[in-house]
Amino acid sequence: MKWAKSWHGFSSCVVRRLIVSLWVLSLPTLAEPQPPTSNPAASQRAPGTGELGRLLGLPADAALRISGVWVGNGTDQWNGGVTGLNATNGVQSVIAEASLDLGKAIGLENTWIWVQGLQVNATTDAGQASGSVQGTNSLTTAPPPDRTELFEYAIRKDFFDGRLRVIAGKQSASVIFANINRPDTTSDFRYQIQNLTSLTFTPIYSMPTLMGRLPGYTNSALGLAVTAQPEFFDDRSYISLGVYDGRGGLRDASVQTGLDSPSLAGPLFSIAEVGSGWVVGKARKPGSAGLGAWSQGGESVVCQQGNSSNCFTEVGAWGLYGLLNQRLSSFRPEHDSSGLNGFVSAGWSPSNSNQMSASITAGLTADGPLKSRPNDSIGIGIAWASINRNSDFLRAEYNPNELMLQGYAQIALTGSLYFQPTITVLPLIGDRDATPDSVSGLLQLTMLF
Question: What is d(CA 13, CA 322) in angstroms, rounded to the nearest whole number?
């Protein structure tokens, strides 16, 4: 039986787990070195804690590491949105990884290989009831809603003391490019955080102007990524280049590259990003910025929903994007990495076949607001997008703009289990058929292993 048909059983299980775990909220938790985003498969290279491998008998410093993350959430539409769709929906995602340090294993230094498996199950209307075009729940996926994938298999080789990093294989490019959640590992220890936000809306993990173009959750793709930090760059500056299977970026004629056999014989997707970091003031509060450009090869086809004879085509597409984040204040700078962080990302594309032509996403996150609970965080975010309406049928289907507001609290129940309530409001909705003032709630559990 499909997982979608057992949603009620899934939700009951989640409720039971929450009831059992809530007593832990009154206890302080130990600092967790890798707290999760709300969608680790889309934004983090090595998900999980490695506890699964240790349970199987692997020592913590073994060449082989086995780890993963399970994420499950349920949503309910409280006001507005699309009538006729199920108001209550659920999604669950599991990603498991086996990685091997070839330096430890066979003496091939600075070389790693890994394999990741991904399982996603969603109810039929998951992510659709709100009427959002950008997406309120990043765990939802393009059809089919139930999928099992060999998500990544790749090799990484570092050269020149790590100043040149090469990754080849089937991979999620969103971990490297246009990723506002990429961790800052060059800062003083007290400022190091593994992610800037755990907002659940999709623009954090798939920039609206790159949606469907950049390989990522759940459509990884075969490709090559190179990141360089030349000698004349400081340790905070970088340039990254990537070339990937571009079949997934051809709208309406696209291939589900996460499920399909990998290939570089068709159109290619190319992307480049350059960035740098800095510290501000005596407190040395870190910040960073990045600028990127992308190009989609092939012929994109956009058709009216339910009418494949009413289409227009475009050969090639391109766009630009930028990323900026800054630590604004530190709560306990001599004790832990708690503090207030701000971020903004923006994208633009002149392509007529892009669903969204411009976007701005921004937010604030308070990490460890309470001394007794250093692993908790709270955050707010805003996402705006200009929606392409370059034909009569697109103007009939979409409004000109969408504005989405979201707030969340991520609560560490234990060192590896997180509970997250989230509220999303859409003052402006992209779907023209949706009722205004869409409001929805989401409850999510994340378990690292």
Answer: 41
Cis peptide before 144 (omega within 30 of 0): yes
Query: CATH homologous superfamily of domain 3-448?
Result: Carbohydrate-selective porin OprB (2.40.160.180)
Long-range contacts: 23-26, Cβ < 8 Å, 24+? 24/413, 24/414, 25/411, 25/413
- Could you tell me which residues come within 8 angstroms of residue 364 by beta carbon, excluding any fewer than 6 positions away? 328, 340, 341, 342, 379, 380, 381
For residues 408-426, one letter each, b for 16 or more C-beta atoms within 10 angstroms of the residue's C-beta and e for the rest, the string is: bbbbbbebbbbbbebebbb
pLDDT per residue as tens digits for the range 130-164: 999 999 999 998 888 899 999 999 999 999 988 99
At CA 259, angle to CA 256 and CA 261, rounded to 5? 95
Kindly report the backbone phi and psi dihedral angles of residue 324, in degrees, each rounded to the nearest multiple of 5, phi listed first: -150, 130
Look up residue 44 and give its amino acid. Answer: Q
d(CA 283, CA 76): 43
Among 420, 429, 431, residue whose Cα is nearest residue 199: 420
**Mean pLDDT within 102-117:** 96
**CA 398, CA 251: separation in Å to the nearest integer?**
16
Is 244 a residue whose pLDDT tops 50?
yes
CA 15 to chain centre: 25
Query: Is this prediction's pTM over 0.70?
Result: yes
| Site of tokens 């967790």 | 32
What amino acid is encoded at 270 in this protein?
Answer: S
| For the chain, domain boundaries | 3-448
| CA 362 – CA 341 distance, rounded (Å) | 11
In the chain the first and final C-alpha atoms are separated, in Å, by: 27
Signed CA dihedral, 204, 167, 120, 62: sign only? negative
3-state secondary structure of 197: coil
284: Cα separation from own chain's centroid: 28
Longest dimension (CA), the chain: 64
User: Rounded CA gap, 370 and 336, in Å?
Assistant: 11
